[in-house]
Design a protein that fits this description.
The complex is a heterodimer of chains A (89) and B (167).
Chain A lengths: L2 H29 L2 H19 L16 H6 L15
Helix pairs in contact in A: 1-2
Chain B lengths: L3 H25 L9 E14 L5 E12 L8 E12 L7 E10 L6 E7 L4 E2 L9 E12 L5 E11 L6
Antiparallel strand pairs in B: 1-2, 2-5, 2-6, 3-4, 3-7, 7-8
Classes of the chains: A mainly alpha (89), B mainly beta (167).
């Protein structure tokens, strides 16, 4: 999942769960059914899980642009020079 | 949000937090219910009234208990626990409360009831103060919720009196 996808997924998860909660309380209170509230909320949690947890392809529409290999050769990585030990004579 | 397990954990934690909020709101909504219970208790008969070998008085009575507790039930009610207690004063104690009968009412439909029984639990005094004693019969109830705060209240019915002599 790319960075853009991660941001979208986090927001989606929070919004979906909060909305499920709100709808659950409202419907439960209106129908005087505690069971209705719990079922709606559970359904909302399952829906949010299915939408946001798996790595769906549409979260990968802005993939990272890695550096081209040919470009990388022009700028070689600096070599670590090994320190010479001063040996006592 | 960079791995399956990470997202699953975040979602689960947030879901449980929201669940806690939902339950708190459900419990809070109980404050807005209109409760108007009613009850009546009639003592049909004093079956016997004796002094036990240890010196304590004991009474057995038959009561007719009528109550309508349907308005106590809300969407967040699991059951209502109701009990009848005899309350009186003695020189030793300012308040004596003796539980005579109780019941668990699991559903609204069963909360409008009429029952005629003798006391389920024994009415025994601490001492021998019951002759000619005036007492109240109080119907207490505890509304037990599915989630959240429990409410308790009572109706006090006064004007009952025990006989002046043992029988």
């Amino acid at each position: 999942m790319d960075w853009q996808g991660q941001k979208v997924v986090e927001q989606l998860m929070q919004i979906l769960l909060v909305i499920s909660g709100v709808v659950a309380v409202v419907v439960g209170y209106a129908t005087e059914s505690f069971r209705a509230m719990m079922l709606i909320y559970a359904g909302g949690v399952v829906l949010a899980t299915l939408i946001t947890v798996p790595n769906w392809p549409f979260y990968n529409h802005h993939p990272l642009k890695w550096l081209d290999p040919s470009e990388a050769e022009k700028h070689p990585k600096p070599q670590v020079v090994a320190k010479k030990r001063f040996s006592k004579k | 949000m960079h791995s399956f397990g990470y997202r699953a954990n975040a979602l689960l934690t947030f879901a449980v937090t929201i669940l806690a909020f939902i339950c708190a709101i459900a419990s809070f909504s109980d404050n807005f219910s209109n409760q108007a219970p009613s009850a009546q208790i009639q003592i049909l008969n004093i079956n016997w009234f004796q002094k036990q070998p240890h010196g304590n008085d004991e009474v057995s009575l038959t009561m007719n208990i009528t109550a309508d507790l349907q308005s106590l039930f809300t969407w967040n009610t699991k059951q209502v626990f109701a009990f009848v207690a005899a309350e009186y004063e003695t020189s030793k104690n300012t308040l004596n409360q003796v539980s005579l009968w109780d019941a668990i009412i699991p559903e609204k439909e069963e909360a409008n009831f009429w029952i005629q029984i003798s006391n389920k639990y024994r009415f025994i005094d601490q001492g021998h103060n019951l002759r000619g004693k005036d007492f109240n019969l109080t119907l207490h109830w505890h509304v037990m919720p599915k989630t959240g705060k429990m409410f308790a209240d009572k109706i006090v019915m006064s004007g009952y009196r025990l006989p002046n002599a043992y029988r």
